[in-house]
Predict the structure of Carboxylic ester hydrolase.
Amino acid sequence: MKASLLHFLAVPAFALANTLEKRQSDWVVGQTVQTDSGPVSGHPALNASQVSEYLGIPFAVPPVGDLRFAPPQKYSGSSPINGTSFGFSCPAPTISSNVSAANIASANLTASGLLTLQALAQYGDKFSEDCLTLNVWTKPQTGDAKKAVLLWIYGGGFTTGNSDSPVYNGQWIADQEDVVLVSTNYRLNIFGFPGNPNGTNNLGLLDQRLAVEWVRDNIANFGGDPTRITLFGQSAGGASVDYYSYAWTSDPIVAGFIPESGTALGLGQIKPDQSASLWYNVSTKLGCGDASSDEASVLSCMRTKNYTSILQALPSGGVTGTTGFGPTIDNVVVFSDYLNRSAAGNFIKKPMLVGNANNEAGLFRAVAAVEGMSSQYSDAYWNAFNLLGFVCPAAARANISVANGVPTWRYRWFGVFPNTIITTDPESGAWHASELPVLFNYSGPADLEIPATTPEEIAIGNYFRGAWATFAKDPVNGLRTYSGGNGAGWPTYLPGQNTLVRLAYQNLTGPNLAPSQMYDSGCPVTFAVPSGALGNGSTNATVTGTAPPTTVTKSEGGRRETGFGLLVFLGALLFAL
């Protein structure tokens, strides 16, 4: 009887294995794949001909009409989808006229710097509210039959950005690392975070969740493993990854998190009354009423306006187009008490790889120069901005995970290469988002005078991609033994010990290790870690160090403001490529 039962149970497993093997042997690059959205046909990726590329797959009903300023609705269809071109970018403001050619010249931008600012301004993008699409890169015919999945969320200050930027093309990671790469769009600025007191907010974050659900339900047909989905993102995308980790505790879906240069603990969230004020400023400009008007009537009127008219009514934001709309406290998806939730362990306890760039401020200084504002801010200001805006939140988020017994790795990006330098005076260093061209293996258009990729950059890129893919394949243990041809694995992060991984330190490949206090000593708060969680007999219960000065000098006119207060202006510029 027992033997018969074992035989019965073994048959489905054997049949499944045969099905997976058959799919691999029969796979044709770009073949049609059945999805909940309909049958999707793809094509070979441009620079990786064995990778199947599927672009512009709708995962939500177009958010137009009564669905504008409303939660996303799942899209289901049966009509064939031509997945050979990207979908539209979600509506976003473009570059403001207050950026002059003289300012651009005085900013000491390189060709790479100009290209970066053009990407921020979304030159040449095609916009539409029918933008909730995602993209898939996969190579099922080789390697694992069920591949780990990396789901990318772009940055842009929750104001700009898209999944079709050439910097984010997933072909190289899918080709080299035997994973499935997915990228998704989500609504931005007032369309994604409207502040409407008569409706649901944080729609952009809900878009991201719906994309995760689509991946869970459909990625197996692309050769992916729905039980091994890792979210990764940078800047606002990194913060999105972290927001997700606190919002969906009852149904995580994902297996790991990689927030790069952005966390829920960063520069804070918008309060509902502040968000409502932004909403009514726009509605008033459009003749739809103000805070004294009937809320439902205001919303109804706003839904009748052309999206371009709404964008024109947004506050001007210079080269970034940043308008102030963003994640708003609703205590459903975005919370007011992240430190308390962290202390209570009220978040998804899945492995985390978190970090930041060595000189995040390098990009923001370039933007300030282009906007003619560089003389207003001192070196001390930028140092405080770098520390309080990025280093300390990354340290705190890593410590939170460690304190709760979650496998955690922490990195700091140091890579500086000829083709990633965006300003020469001051030197941009390893600026905010400078790791992304290396991670995605993007070298820029051939017709621009951008320096060639160096051998060191190529080696580091291979190592970098390998590390992220290794984490996705086995979030709990993969990095512990990852060598990438250099080193003997990454130690799990322990504050106060030599466990901070310095990526591309001195442009060398491998896990150069350092104690976290080398960079965290100025942080006023990094979250207490019980000594028992540190292991190895350490008694270093927390990493705090000396708090930074309460004031930071702003060079113009000797004006002084608090360190955190100084972040308010630049907080609006938290964006990425």
